[in-house]
Amino acid sequence: MIDEGKEVTQDLSMKATLDSMFQVAFGVELDSMCGSSEEGKKFSIAFDDASAMTLFRYVDILWKIKKFLNIGSEASMKKKTKIINDFVFKIIHTKIELMESSKDKSLMKREDILSRFLKGTENDPIYLRDVILSVIIAGKDTTATTFSWFIYLLCKHPSVQDKVVNELRELANAKKIANFADFAETLSEEVVERMQYLHAAITETLRIYPAVPVDGKICSSDDTLPDGYSVRKGDLVVYQPYAMGRMKCLWGDDADQFRPERWLDENGVFQPQSPFKFTAFQAGPRICLGKEFAYRQLKIFATVLLNYFEFKLSDEKRIAHYRTMITLHIDGGLQVRVLHRNIN
């Protein structure tokens, strides 16, 4: 049995999503999970600290004065920002140098986001830094917190955890592979796409615990909403995915229950709902560009981990509560017991 520390699931999820994002999006081995990269470790810590300080500005009416005087939290924010900028600019300049000097054609065919930008006409470091940080901000905490809530709900509903494991073992032939690294290599896109119950379980998690619980938009022009309410240019319109996911008028009398089957038809095939009803990824022209990447990442994490490990809450009576933040973190983290699962 592996009995991890206080924030095992949430903390490790944060590190894992950050590492995979850097690898896929920027072609960089950050390795914050193992901590072998000192620069990567400093960047990860600075990024999290800067995110928390940014949120604190909403309640600190003196933050602009502190920033001008370079004191208190804003002095610390300046130091954290420098660490972040230095790290990101180094990645950009290193990638530019490699692509300009390397004779290895395979390097020029890299499919990561940064390489694609550099192969185009946009080489402004400031712009590229903003792209990199936007991708990290949009995809790091959202995916990690969703996975934490997913594990929490599987612990609370062992029968669902068993169904997910049965599906992945049937589709991925997991029983034949003892090494988790070898198993991960066998997870083709086709296999992952066929995991309908897992997809439903993740979607049901997002319905109850959306990564961004409250969201808002600024009106770009005068308009009239579908219910007849008029809004003007510059108005802030806020909606709440957290509350909407629990409305009985939208989801039925069992809206407060975790039931992945609500997303499946009689043949066990996933049936999507309107994004204007299921708003975890927003809807319309502003729908999340990283939606499919997030699902793919979550499904791969879940498949590999659940095939080899069984998750149980350290305190099975504990009810998890959210922490008031931009993204829906579990307050105090999630303490779990991780047991080796029989793969035979």
TrEMBL record:
Heme binds at residue 288. The keyword Metal-binding applies. Its cofactor is heme. GO terms for molecular function: heme binding; iron ion binding; monooxygenase activity; oxidoreductase activity, acting on paired donors, with incorporation or reduction of molecular oxygen. It comes from the Eukaryota. SUPFAM superfamilies: Cytochrome P450. InterPro entries: Cyt_P450 (IPR001128), Cyt_P450_E_grp-I (IPR002401), Cyt_P450_sf (IPR036396). Keywords: Heme, Iron, Metal-binding, Monooxygenase, Oxidoreductase. Belongs to the cytochrome P450 family. This is Cytochrome P450. It comes from Cannabis sativa. The lineage of its organism: Eukaryota, Viridiplantae, Streptophyta, Embryophyta, Tracheophyta.
